[in-house]
Amino acid sequence: MYRFLLSRQWVILTLVALLLIPTMIRLGIWQMHRYDERTARNQLVSDALDAKPVPVETLTSPGHTVTSKERYHSVTAKGRFDTDHEVVVRRRTNSDDEVGYHVLTPFVLNDGKVLLVNRGWIAADGPSQTAFPKIPAPPRGEITVTGRLMPDETTEASGIKDLKGLPDRQIMLINSAQEAKRLGADVLGGYIAQTAPEPKGDIPELMGSKPGMENAALNFAYAYQWWLFAAAVPIGWVVLVRRETRDRREKAEKESGAESEETEPAAV
């Protein structure tokens, strides 16, 4: 009755099932690894958000690469804004996914070093985005700013191309090494997304108070989904075998009954 399992169709079906099971198990394991990685990154973000603000120069210095543990850590700096060398970062979105600019203003510390401060998001003046937008001025004189420490942006990490030939005072990436060359100054590695003081009229729109958390739970759900699929494959194979066996048995019984009727002698 089970000789049909040796047919070409069933051999192929069985081989496919045998290949699917370990593949789905491995995909589930991969999703669990992604879950663990994202959970660990989210924990680093939570730890940084819960940490008390520290002076910015305790975490970064000129040429320093901001690490994943330092990212989002709240830092403070005392100095003054240098609006003469202010630039805007193109193609940035706000919390409503509107496209505009981030305002990047050098902040000169009391020791002469420069900290890059992302003061927030502003809307573009027009569709062309070629003219330098109108930007509300920051507080004048010596002040203390607070923000979330962020690593330098690169094309590899962000996927944003560092285009050349842009309009005056417009850039694509926030990168301390590039800004150090432009300013001719010692620029601290990375930059901060400003959280305080809040601007008058809420413009620019502060972005540093809303760091993104990765959806690790989704990877956890995907892992179990793949494992359920892996468990369903042999169950489905057994169901198909039993159905095929039943159909063949019923067909054999019908054929046997028909032959009996043909060979049975006619009643006198």
Automatic annotation (TrEMBL):
Which InterPro entries does this one have? Surf1/Shy1, Surf1/Surf4
List the keywords (alphabetical).
Cell membrane, Membrane, Transmembrane, Transmembrane helix
Quote the Pfam families the UniProt record gives. Answer: SURF1 (PF02104)
Q: Where is this protein localized, as stated in its record?
A: Cell membrane; Membrane
Bias-annotated ranges (Basic and acidic residues)? 246-257
Q: Which domain of life is it from?
A: Bacteria
GO cellular component terms, alphabetically, are: plasma membrane
Q: How does it sit in the membrane?
A: Multi-pass membrane protein
Region (Disordered) residue ranges read 246-268
Q: Where is composition skewed (Acidic residues) in this entry?
A: 258-268
Segments passing through the bilayer: 224-241
Membership in a protein family: Belongs to the SURF1 family.
Q: What is this protein called?
A: SURF1-like protein
The scientific name of the source species is Streptomyces aquilus
